[in-house]
């Protein structure tokens, strides 16, 4: 492509398509003006306000972003081959745009008519005569690439994935900066199958690093919002990611596709019922994440429910009504058999006892109505007996009691946990009250499980869980509670599982999610990592995930891998400075990934050397960052945004144009065991888009030694 697109000679075809782009932009402006001209006429001030804000939201959604092409493809349906759209043509873009007559100028990529853009092949042309892709540079339509089907097929470039498409290849190989972008113009057929699966279908995607799992999950949400807007809006959709930094990295994707109402959270945020103020050992954390804890908690929560020791009496006016203990016990038995939630059960027990009283009143010739039943259910003696046989329960109190009292724990554990395991849970020095307890992250997940025993958690319509390979059974159950009536898209890579509590297989994970019926799909084409780099990292696969096939790379451009062994720490620092300076001389972002414990040292080294950088583990002022990128700030400010110092524990899911991995052995050693260490290494080695530099003074793990 010429360096200055504006200076290149422009073909008549490009001019014609630019005209359509201009007309589409004008039509979009008209749609927006029409929306803004609407007058809100609600019945009262509140409804007028509601309508007004709906108008503003719609107008905002119709805003044209000059940097985002309004369309990226065109479909010409064949006059004879297409039964649905014979002889028609459509421009495919991020949103629907129509002219003053309501005729489409651009169709939404998610509309059924757009399907052929992603799926048509020489074998299955789907009624197309021609598929056209548009290339853009600096917001200007600069290139056209045609793929004829049918008669003109011989002239067509090779088939997918990137085939002969320069536009596709350029998109995949563009240097990366800033947050993740949508891939709507280049979704591949096997990705599209997942994106467009029906709302009722739960899917699990296993995929090597950079195969587009995250991208696919986000585009699936956007598709579902289009195809089932009302249901998703009513139920809600949620994207679950591993940490805030990752969520920040992906947060622009859905808004760029016009979808701003999708919640994004970490599992920790979902279950944040108490602050996390402590950390336990790996063995205890692993146990607390084990699915057996669900049964233990259930028994502990219900441990307080018992049959009454004696009968009870309700006084109404001058009459006494006695309900024998066995009858109350029967009510309790029935309710427990129906598996009611704990707090609903309390209310129901009160009503059942009141009903027993009512039956006796009726037998004695009285004719009490529902109000009398309610009054009896609320009466003091009934409340007292309910409090005694079905006491109020608080999650924190149950867990506090469980960790404090070995006898209670033994009773709740039954055969589920052996004595050593029980000892792992019991506090050495118990806090005096539940309020004073310092909970760990794993405890908070257990509090959420207990809260669900108390009251049912509301279900969403769809949940996407990214990096799901790291979640414990109990964390997966926490996600499951939030999609009992909805579906899930589970994304991950077993080879990248780095937590001691990870479930280990997708079948197990899906079981804990309550979606055993989900289909497991595999993505194998890597869009991020250059071939040499992925092949180097894949040397770890026989150890870390022997059953997984080595990933491939669709990137054709060279891409680089440098492995640099040095003698000592001083040389390491020197080479780090050199490598960073060289990387910054190129385009795109630069990530320096180190063991978490080494981060401060590297930061200090950068400061001493006058290298401006950002730390990923520190909050960044987003406005400042955007300003630096937009304006021609001082070079050092721009470098500070481009150069990111990344602790290995936060690298998952992210990518940088150039990556420098510092001292791999230290990164591996920081994990709980050798397997998890090598998996962490696999994650950090697969973050690079164009170049990976590995710097080490210590010997490399044997599989990586050159
Ligand atoms: N069809 C595509 N066209 C262009 N780029 C793509 C396509 N699919 C994925 N990519 C790009 O490849 C990179 C990796 O995608 P993504 O982060 O979704 O992969 P992942 O499988 O989630 O990786 P990881 O396992 O490392 O988390 C991103 O830059 C994404 O935009």
Features:
706 residues; single chain; Rossmann fold; six-stranded mixed sheet; 17% strand; alpha/beta; globular; 24 strands; 30 helices; six-stranded parallel sheet; binds adenosine-5'-triphosphate
How far is the first residue's CA from the last residue's CA?
37 Å
Count up the domains.
4
The number of strands is: 24
For the record, what CATH class of the largest domain applies? Alpha Beta
CATH architecture title of the largest domain: 3-Layer(aba) Sandwich
Main β-sheet: number of strands, strand sense, barrel status? 6 strands, mixed
Strand content: 15-25%
What's the helix count? 30
CATH fold group of the largest domain: Rossmann fold
What is the global morphology? Answer: globular
Q: Which parts are unreliable, with pLDDT below 50 for 5 consecutive residues or more?
A: 155-161
The small molecules bound here are:
adenosine-5'-triphosphate
Task: Indicate the mean pLDDT.
Answer: 90
CATH superfamily of the largest domain: P-loop containing nucleotide triphosphate hydrolases
Q: From the alpha carbons, calculate the radius of gyration and give it in angstroms.
A: 31 Å
Overall helicity: 40-55%
Order of strands in the sheet with most strands: 3-4-2-1-5-6
Helix vs. strand class: alpha/beta
Folded structure, characterized:
It is a single chain. The chain is an alpha/beta fold and 706 residues long. Helix content is 42%, strand content 17%. It is built from 30 helices and 24 strands. Mean pLDDT is 90; it is low at 155-161. Residues 171-172, 183, 186-188, 191, 207, 209-215, 493, 496, 527-528, 653, 655, 686 line the site of adenosine-5'-triphosphate. This is AAA family ATPase. One of its GO terms (molecular function) is hydrolase activity. Pfam families: AAA_19 (PF13245).
């Amino acid at each position: 492509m010429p360096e200055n697109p504006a200076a290149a000679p422009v073909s008549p075809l490009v001019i014609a398509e630019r005209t359509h782009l201009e007309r589409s932009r004008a039509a979009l402006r008209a749609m927006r003006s029409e929306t803004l001209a609407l007058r809100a006429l609600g019945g009262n001030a509140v409804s007028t306000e509601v309508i007004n804000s709906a108008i503003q939201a719609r107008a905002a959604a119709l805003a044209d972003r000059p940097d985002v092409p309004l369309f990226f493809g065109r479909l010409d349906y064949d006059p004879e081959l297409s039964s649905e759209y014979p002889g028609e043509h459509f421009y495919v873009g991020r949103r629907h745009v129509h002219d003053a007559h309501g005729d489409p100028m651009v169709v939404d990529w998610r509309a059924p008519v757009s399907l052929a853009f992603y799926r048509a092949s020489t074998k299955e042309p789907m009624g197309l005569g021609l598929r056209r892709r548009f290339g853009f540079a600096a917001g200007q339509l600069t290139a056209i690439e045609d793929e004829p089907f049918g008669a003109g097929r011989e002239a067509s470039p090779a088939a997918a994935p990137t085939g002969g498409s320069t536009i596709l290849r350029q998109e995949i190989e563009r240097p990366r900066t800033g947050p993740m972008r949508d891939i709507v113009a280049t979704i591949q057929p096997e990705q599209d199958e997942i994106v467009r699966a029906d709302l009722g279908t739960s899917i699990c995607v296993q995929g090597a690093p950079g195969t587009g799992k995250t991208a696919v999950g986000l585009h699936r949400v956007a598709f579902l919002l289009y195809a089932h807007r009302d249901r998703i809006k009513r139920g809600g959709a949620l994207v679950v990611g591993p940490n805030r930094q990752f969520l920040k990295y992906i947060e622009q994707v859905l808004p760029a596709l016009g979808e701003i109402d999708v919640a994004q959270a970490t599992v920790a945020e979902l279950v944040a019922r108490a602050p996390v103020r402590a950390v336990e050992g790996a063995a205890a954390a692993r146990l607390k994440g084990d699915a057996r804890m669900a049964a233990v908690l259930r028994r502990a929560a219900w441990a307080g429910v018992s049959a009454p020791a004696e009968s009870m009496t309700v006084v109404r006016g001058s009459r006494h009504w006695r309900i024998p203990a066995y009858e109350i016990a029967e009510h309790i038995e029935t309710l427990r058999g129906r598996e009611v939630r704990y707090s609903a059960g309390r209310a129901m027990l009160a009503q059942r006892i009141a009903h027993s009283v009512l039956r006796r009143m009726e037998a004695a010739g009285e004719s009490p109505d529902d109000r009398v039943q309610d009054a009896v259910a609320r009466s003091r003696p009934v409340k007292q007996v309910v409090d005694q046989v079905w006491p109020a329960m608080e999650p924190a109190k149950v867990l506090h009691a469980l960790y404090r009292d070995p006898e209670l724990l033994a009773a709740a554990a039954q055969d589920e946990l052996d004595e050593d395991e029980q000892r792992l849970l019991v506090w050495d020095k118990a806090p005096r009250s539940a309020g004073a307890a310092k909970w760990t992250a794993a405890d908070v997940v257990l509090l959420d499980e207990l809260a669900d025993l108390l009251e049912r958690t509301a279900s969403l319509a769809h949940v996407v869980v990214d990096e799901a390979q790291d979640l414990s059974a109990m964390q997966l159950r926490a996600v499951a509670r939030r999609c009992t009536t909805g579906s899930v898209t589970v994304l991950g890579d077993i080879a990248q599982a780095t937590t001691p509590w990870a479930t280990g297989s997708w079948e197990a994970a899906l079981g804990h999610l309550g979606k055993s019926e989900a289909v497991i799909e595999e993505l194998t084409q890597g869009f991020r990592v250059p071939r040499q780099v992925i092949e180097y990292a894949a040397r770890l696969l026989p150890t870390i995930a022997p059953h997984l096939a080595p990933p491939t790379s669709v990137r054709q451009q060279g891409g680089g891998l440098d492995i640099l062994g040095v003698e000592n720490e001083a040389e390491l620092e020197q080479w780090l400075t050199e490598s960073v300076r060289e990387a910054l001389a190129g385009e795109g972002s630069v990530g320096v990934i180190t063991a978490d414990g080494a981060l401060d040292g590297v930061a200090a080294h950068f400061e001493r050397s006058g290298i401006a950088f950002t730390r990923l583990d520190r909050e960044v002022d987003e406005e400042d960052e955007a300003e630096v990128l937009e304006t021609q700030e001082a070079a050092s400010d721009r470098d500070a945004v481009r150069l990111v110092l990344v602790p290995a524990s936060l690298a998952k899911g992210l990518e940088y144009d150039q990556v420098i991995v510092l001292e791999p052995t230290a990164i591996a050693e920081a994990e709980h065991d050798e397997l998890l260490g090598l998996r962490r290494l696999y994650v950090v080695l697969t973050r690079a888009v164009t170049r990976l530099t590995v710097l080490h003074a210590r010997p490399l793990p044997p599989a990586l030694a050159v």
